[in-house]
Fold:
Amino acid sequence: MDDSCISFNAVRTITLLILLTFSSIIVSCGSETSGNYCQGTTVSVSGRAEDDLYIKSSFNNWSLSTPMTYKDGLWSVELFLAPGSYPYEFFSAKASKRFLDTSNPLTMFDKDIRYSKLVVKDCRYPSIELAGRPEINGKNIRFQIKFTPGISGKNPDFSKSEILLGRDAADYSFDKKTGIISIDHTAGDFGKYTWFFKIFDGDGFATEVLTVPVWIEEKEFEWQNAFMYQLMTDRFSNGDKSNDDPLPGIDEKANWQGGDFQGIINKIDDNYFTDMGVNVLWISSPVANTENPGKGMGGDTRYYAPYHSYWPIATGWTNELHIPGLDSPIEKHFGTEEKLHELIHKAHKKGIRIMFDFVPNHVHTDSYLWKTYKNQGWFNMAADGLPANSSGGYTCGWERPVDCWFTDYLADINYRSDEATEAVINHLIWMIQEFDIDGLRLDAIRLMELDFTTTLKTAIQRKVTTTGILFYMIGETFTGDMGWDEIGYYLGENKLDGQFDFPLYHHIVRTFLLQSEDFRTFTKFLETNDYRYQNDFYKGSIMGNFIGNHDVARALSLANKDFDGVSSQGGAEADQKVWENSPELPEEELPFKKMRNALTFMFTHPGIPIIYQGDEFGMPGANDPDNRRMALFGDDLSENQKKNLAHTQILGNFRKEHPALMHGTRKDLIVEENIYAFSMKNGNDTVIAVFNNGDKTEKVTIDLDESGFKGEAETLFSEEKPETKDNKITIELEPFSSELIYGRNNII
Structure:
């Protein structure tokens, strides 16, 4: 090995000799009053004896004054530091190369240079940790929490401490000799049970909050099993007219329309979601927004209300920081904190996970964070030679996405500021723990430093997912039909769990809704798309599949060719028809049939199917905000819409019974211009999907041996028994229709 390889080889094999908390190096510290330090910590990196390694940091003024010592294949150094956060790197003097600590996902910036982040905790404070995974026997839950006192050695003061199950006091026992807090609880019903611990010691010092979430379910949930429903809270259902408060002078399409938490609760109670097979709800960010209207982006001179909840002013709220001037951090148009708790509790009782939309990229200039910290490096500001707007920041095009402001009233957060990063992360951790949610959809993920994502993931792994339950994080990286590199960059064990599959979206629209792409082209795309996320970026990625969302023209109107009939987003016409000549509900069934084909594919493709409210039955609409019309239910649906809703309900419930559709491998069986058949197989469970994307009735014969199918075949949508001969099955497909073939007794 030559000298140039030393540092890069070391990067791959860095290890630490201590158990890391917050997944970073944690250094014990001394009393602020005494100035003494507690025990140090040893930081180590593998290397060769002839290497010459140092640790450089702000604590040694980035000098080579802190050498590392070699022993048994490791270069090590013991550090004694005061509480705080320190940027650091390793340096090979022999190779004259710097490298970061790749075993530590935490990073921070110093003078715009990225370093690893070392966190030194105050050892006066006690700590708690989960001592092993909870034991679940039927509905009985047992686990233990280990209390470690601070430097004074004081025991817990339970008169001040909080040990809660949900929002109620929990039963527990404590062993003074071992410092073990024991929980032994028998659940009364299925659902989620989450314990919250904050323990004070005799000196009045408190541990950080620790949550212990446990689900009691008939079938164990994995995020590959999810069926996610996206709703915009203001545009879903108005359950409480007392919080309706539209802004004067704003067009109804761009104004508050009354949807709220109570409306969602009503639909949970009515089993609207469970009847569809939905087990994850993604709701609008509940964080309070400005009360002022704002102009649209670019040359849009219309005024909008923040009904979408993307103009937050309460970001930063925690138990320790209640923002002055706000009674609550929750958007008042949606309801109260109590109502949000009720919504989540009722969803959990029905086995439904809750995900919040969250806006990390920016805050409104009416916000506390902007007003307090705008001159302290927390926001991306105009550089020399760039025009500053009235707020001191600037707007720009997509050529500089990380430091670009959307508009002059949406202050872009600078995640090179460690203080700004911690403020937003602490707010998010508070919100996750306070409302006991199960995942996040992160808005505009590529418009921020990657460090925000990795820091958030690390904090969640430490403070939220203590029992091993995945807290699912999916990001929005809006791309074209070949945006794999942009999307994949944010996927990883210490990054996002999944992303919205925009390349797949574009091809689904072209193939099933517009018919501008045939199945031969579509399947060639799938070969690449299937491979890239799992193999080029992150093996554990769980992608999100969709045929529409709140930022693109409605799938039904695309299928009806209300726009140019070619562009997967509707082109310029989808913008032109937002306010005038907006798409109406089609009378003929053809566009609904095309949507049913697209839905069938989405529910049989690997990944999480995500339905944007209204796409379960087909709603018309041009671009934002016309694509955000109030949702419809029951008798307000047309006959064609009711057919599509029934189709979605069948697919949603069928999918959750078939491991092949959640964990299976696809094999193409027939690929023709307008006919496509493939199998999904997992163990003994095989499902065959067949599509006719043409305008003629077709008979399709499938060799069951080729698919690995065994047993007696049944069809999902047709009541007629399929024709089977010589282990080949023949089905007749009407124009623009699909069928699923399965064996009822072959499910694992």
Q: What stands out?
A: Residues 519-537 form the longest helix (19 residues).
